[in-house]
Structures are given as C-alpha cells and as structure tokens.
Specification:
Helix content: over 70%
Number of strands: 0
Mean pLDDT: 86
Distance between the termini: 79 Å
Strand content: under 5%
Radius of gyration: 21 Å
Length: about 120
C-alpha cells in the first residue's frame, strides 16, 4: 500500500502541465528557397530562424527549471531511480528540441549557400 501511495504522489508531482507551462515552439512554417528567393525573403527567413532559436532556448530553460521544481517539490518521496527517470525524460525533450533547431538551421544554411551561388553567378 505504501508503494502505491508513493507512486501516486510521484505521479501527481510529475504529471504537471508540462506543455502548458513550457510550450514547445513551432518551427518556421516555410524557409525561403535559395533558388528563387529575394534578398528580403532571405533576411526574413533569417529573422524567423533566429526567433525560433530564441524560442527553443526559452523552452529548454523552462523544462530545465520545471524539472528542478518537480524534484524539489517531491523531496524525500522521490527515489533515486525515479529522479533518474525524470532527468532522462527531460534530457530527451531537451535534446529533441536542440536537434530540431539544428535541423532547421542546417536547412536554412543550405538555402543561403544556394542563394549566394545563384546571386554570385549574376555578378560574375
């Protein structure tokens, strides 16, 4: 019975509104196509990617803080393996967000290269 009560307490502490307090940011809907984009479109794309990077940084900071608060709130009721599971889950969320950001940045950087190649051809 004690084990069940402990599990219920831990579940109540850890099942908080993760996405309500730390909303996952949406990636830019569309990145400019370097083959046809204007300079203004490329600059607007850069602003979107920069804003997305800022939002991801805020998200990861939020989930880090949220984890710390949950661990502190659980106190002595939290077993080491439960704490490790919580930390592992947070790390997975954190890493997934950073990986998605890197993917968006890589795709945008590729379009910058295409744009620069296309516009350099017109100059030369």
């Amino acid at each position: 019975m004690k084990a069940m009560l402990t599990i219920m307490c831990i579940a109540a502490v850890t099942a908080g509104p993760v996405y309500a307090d730390c909303p996952y940011p949406a990636a830019p809907a569309k990145l400019p196509d370097g083959r046809s984009a204007t300079l203004e479109e490329m600059l607007a794309g850069k602003k979107e990617v920069d804003a997305y990077q800022k939002a991801i940084n805020e998200y990861t900071t939020c989930i880090d803080k949220e984890l710390e608060e949950k661990i502190a709130k659980a106190g002595d009721q939290l077993k080491p393996e439960q704490k490790a599971d919580m930390q592992k889950m947070e790390a997975q969320k954190h890493n997934a967000a950073v990986d998605q950001l890197q993917s968006v940045a890589d795709r945008f950087n590729e379009q910058i290269k295409v744009y620069k190649t296309r516009t350099a051809d017109k100059k030369g």
